[in-house]
Amino acid sequence: MSLQTKALVSVRWLTETLRAPGSNVRVLDASWFLPKLRRNAKSEFRARHIPRASFFDLDRCSDRSSPLDHMLPPAPVFAEFASRLGVCPDSHVVVYDRSEHGAFSSPRAWWMFRVFGHASVSVLDGGLEAWIREGQPVEEGKALKHEPTEFTAKLNRAWVKTYEDIVDNVESKTFQVVDARPAGRFRGTDPEPRDNTEPGHIPGSINIPFTSFLASSGLFLPPDQLKAIFQKAGVDLQKPLCVTCGSAVTACLTALAAYQCGHDEVSVYDGGWMEWYTRAAPEDVISEGRGKHRPRFGSSRGGPPPPKKFGNPGDRLRKKKWDLDELPKFEKNFYNEHLEVQRMTQYDVEDFRRKKEITVRGSGCPKPVTNFHQAQFPQYVMDVLLHQNFKEPTAIQAQGFPLALSGRDMVGIAQTGSGKTLAYLLPAIVHINHQPYLERGDGPICLVLAPTRELAQQVQQVAYDYGKSSRIKSTCVYGGAPKGPQIRDLERGVEICIATPGRLIDFLEAGKTNLRRCTYLVLDEADRMLDMGFEPQIRKIVDQIRPDRQTLMWSATWPKEVRQLAEDFLREYVQINIGALELSANHNILQIVDVCMENEKDNKLIQLMEEIMAEKENKTIIFVETKKRCDELTRRMRRDGWPAMCIHGDKSQPERDWVLTEFRSGKAPILIATDVASRGLGFFELH
Questions:
Q1: Which of 589, 613, 610, 601 is closest to 668 using CA atoms?
Q2: Between 637 and which of 162, 253, 346, 644 could a Cys-Cys bridge form, CB atoms 3.0 to 4.6 Å apart?
Q3: What is residue 257's predicted lDDT score, i.e. its pLDDT?
Q4: Where does the DEAD-box RNA helicase Q domain lie (predicted)?
Q5: What's the angle, vertex CA 658, arms to CA 469 and CA 449, rounded to 5?
Q6: Closest CA relative to residue 615, chosen from 576, 649, 666
Q7: Extended strands (E) in 261-331
């Protein structure tokens, strides 16, 4: 929005403008009071208001279907409401309220007009109190009726945060959250003005009471003083900002204060503390006085207390009881052995496997393929392979393609960088194209579980590249990113879903997707998922999938925990091992161990970097043990002129994506990382 329209206008300006001939100003009284004050804003309007003003009812101009107070209405409802108030597209709307503070609810109306696309709106500085104090006339009675106007509204969704956005932000810290409630309510020591709601605050939020921005006269403080208040509280006005309060009323006053400082892209959490307290997990309700203000015997209104979430992720998912006779049948064997493969003798097969270090365990494993055309993939798959200039399948692909295309369950133990992603995705595409089309409400046909966001994103890119020619849709579901776009993808219908276990559990519990249609399950980097503690979530997810599915498990190691998972999830499976079971690193990597004292490490690192970076195209990853060490080493190297960037678990997802993009492109050829980048990410030209 433009900053050309003043957010605040004075009593003098409004008086002179209203007297001017042909004035296009429309004055609205947007007074609203907290429920426990028992004041009727509409009755007080009839008793006294600014001449020619109309009453803007915040409670009526809202989403009436929501149990929360004055949530934003749909755009057509707001347009009709504004039209009946006589607001035209070219009207300059001036809003005020009658709070003793000078402003309280009028900034909410100011923000609503702006968020629905009407930029020409201002708040009367000081409100009705300032108007009367300066001796201006008031009138009583009902507002004048206006002829409906042609007013249109379009919601700017970027300025509205949902509960899901705030949940994501607790982890990702993509934007700052400022709470406008009084300090006692924020800390949890003073009661909330609504029944059934205890005080407290959102994790990571910053408290600046809305009254901080107002002088004792009720006027807004000058911009330089407003900036100082934000800075003192630790708010960076150069970064994204979201404001909240009890029900998104005084939050808009904070948004106006930021606007006065030049920050005109502030978003508002529309549900506010009312929604957060009702929906958030108990550990996400931060309070110094936990339980102090709760009615002793439930709700003081006689209703039940607000619902709260307890237990572990997936506790609300029940293990399904499957009757295979009632399930729709599906095909999973699509393999036709190529004539060239048929001609291979047992000696040829064993010789090929020996040269490629392929070990097979289990009965009925098909012969390996030695070229892509022998797998007899559809032409749309072959076209992409040729375009990407792949010459021949890797070892895991040579044995994995025929096995996966045969519909068999399998375990693949392969070194990092072995090409396993294509080994399961290309057969998945063939599998999907032989199943009935998705119908409305169906979940994915292929589910890939991955341990990290980065690996999930990389797999999704491959799925997109190979699936787009046959119109196979895929999405990536992971934490640390907004839920909204991911939910929309799932609701539209996707054949392939690549997910981290935690986020998928959230969506399954919330009913945002289901696994009724899933017949092809992939567990990628199963050993790492177990190391990260995902076993309970994995078991909950697999319980939601029909037992006659095809399951492919991939791992770099083969400890007893992974073996047990395979025994529980796979049926009559074949195990393919590339190289020795004890090794998981790529044999093509030269490893040099330099034993040195702790105080020698930094100097040796710099010497090594000077040798490596002498060649222009080289890229280097430096792994460190802790996030603190990661940040410290990055700062030190950048200070010394090295083009280094870092990623670790505390970095937001957008920042991690950006750093990886800069590294891959060579703009920042030195990446310092914790184990978040240790496996599953494809980098080229590494030294």
A1: 613
A2: 644
A3: 97
A4: 370-398
A5: 55
A6: 666
A7: 267-269
